[in-house]
Amino acid sequence: MPLALVHDWLNQLGGAEDVLRVLKQLFSQAPIFTSIYDRARMPASWQAWEIHSTWLDRLPGIHRYHQPYMPLFAWVWAHYRLPAEYDLILSNKSAFCIGVRSANPQARHVCYCLTPTRFTYTFEHYAQRERLPPGSRAILAALNAYLRRWETQAAQRVTRLIAISRAVQARIARFYRRDAAVIHPPVDMPPWSPEENADEGFYLIASRLLPYKRIDLAVLAFGQLRRPLFIAGEGRDRARLERLAAQHASGWVRFLGRVDEAELHRLLRTCRAFVFPGEEDFGIAPVRAMAYGKPVVAYAAGGALDTVVDGISGVLFAEQTPAALAEAVQRADRVRFAPAEIRRHAEQFSTARFAEALMCELAALR
Fold first, then answer.
1. Which domains does the chain have, with CATH numbers?
2. Angle at which helices 339-346 and 284-291 cross, to 10°
3. pLDDT tens, 300-331?
């Protein structure tokens, strides 16, 4: 059964690209079809892959600033036809590639849905999160009614929908009016034993520094608590967060910038707990921390409700406020977490279990 992988765009690295990497490992001969491909910003090893992009690649500035071009992405995927030789399409969808079709009318399409497109279904939240300029915001908002209708119709053509979490499963039911299975994204499990567990007293965030991640809550909370917080990652919100830390958490919050895998391994192995103050569709980073036997202090929404068990693998807080986060950190101090139990919990989100569940879904189509 010739299979093609489809991915919305390749101009940044994040959780969607982590999933694509695993899909490519599972289906090594499958080509990847995408809208844009910025080779300079993708791992060098990916240049050995067969990746097909579209004419959107030639538009000015699109690799770094793709948001203003959003309606064009929808138009491209609405008209894109894969070669007829591929009778199974596996899309890794965060935006409009759910609309892809094959020149083969008998081809089946399995959509691994990271989320119904935020740009269309929750536009105001998306525009605020991405800080779209007022002019672009007004024009793009006017197109949303059409885009919502188109995406909802495209979702009806998909053979099988798979959600990454229960939160996304609920959105699929609400926006697409379709049922979906849940298969959590793959998380690499590092070699680990309880004897390796260490606690050097600091708390850790590893994330892109973007406004919707709500890292500002952690900066303020740890300033109030007067406890050390290390923040690994880069992003456009870094300057604002550094100013906030200088004003309210001087000496307690340390920005590490982008760290390599070896340093991230050391940080995860030696932190006291991982902090996850934003709402994500799933959230691979906290599961990685749990794979090291570390508890997670997380906002009780989105994918964290699937991954963090209060009192077992971490502590949840119900309001996105510095006070609620600070109280959760203090509550975590009173819990005697078992690192080996946290690791066992994390293993249910392993790459091996993802592969097994996905292969079962695909086998059911045969």
1. 3-186+351-363 (3.40.50), 194-348 (3.40.50.2000)
2. 130
3. 999 999 999 999 999 999 999 999 999 999 99
